[in-house]
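Journal club prep — side note

Before the paper discussion, L.F. wants everyone to see what a predicted structure for a comparable chain looks like in token form. Sequence:
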Amino acid sequence: MAATALALYKNAAASWDAPCFEVDTMLIKIASLACTLCLAAVSASSSTRAPLVRLDDATVIGFTEGTSTSFLGIPFAQPPVGKLRLQLPQPVARYSGIINATTFGNQCIQQITAQPIFPASLPPEIPPFVATLAELVDVPQSEDCLNINVIVPAGTRPGDSLPVAAWIYGGGFQVGSNAVRPGAVIVNRSIELGTPVIYVSMNYRLNAFGFLGGSEIQKAGLGNLGLHDQREALRWVQKHISAFGGDPSKVTIWGQSAGSHSVALQMITNGGDTEGLFRAGWMESGSAPPTGSILKLQPTFDYIVSETG
């Protein structure tokens, strides 16, 4: 638009054979038009500018839709692959560069069979239903799946100190994804109610990648890696949520089914030591389940070793 104004100015200057007072009038009109065009350009740029958040040395790019702004698929831990496969989650040392957070990150590897993973006492309709959860979202599966979504009311800034609802998905600890629940709906509703919140949802490793058992796993202290992933995500929230306008002292963890079990387990693990990562828990359909010994899964461990070498 500024180029348009400059072209108008040049065209006018080239034809200035008029008296001085007419030239002055023309200059005023062109200057006025140039200012109008430049202001319009600035306004358009401001209204379409992508929302940005600074994490360490990185710029995180999100998107705004309606009354909520989303930052999706942000890595909260190093990829659990290679030497970090079947190991405790390791935090990202420091963010740098540009993080495109406009699409969901990978979901964790999903269980593809419903037969050996569910108790025989369950109604026969349950295993097929849970198995279909992995098909609800069109998101790639990968071992590199430890990412987190943050959805905030549009216009939220650091220092707004909004409460945080951290969602943990269900799926029998076998399937599931942080892309299943429409977090923007919850944020938008909180705005309508006059009590805006920030919605967070994390991925965690599933099935054998996250809950492998056996004596070898017990000796290495590597049981329940999926629960460790959840806790690492909550540590990330404590460290970074203020950059998104959240209050780290007002985090409520929230889950359904296996996510509800997870909430209960996070509340009672290590003798109830929450590390100050959350102040409350909200459980939908499930409390801490009686799990028994990790050694019960030795046959599963042996089978996987025999099949993978």
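L.F.'s comment for the group: Residues 1-23, 38-47 have pLDDT under 50 and may be disordered. Keep this in mind when we get to the figures.
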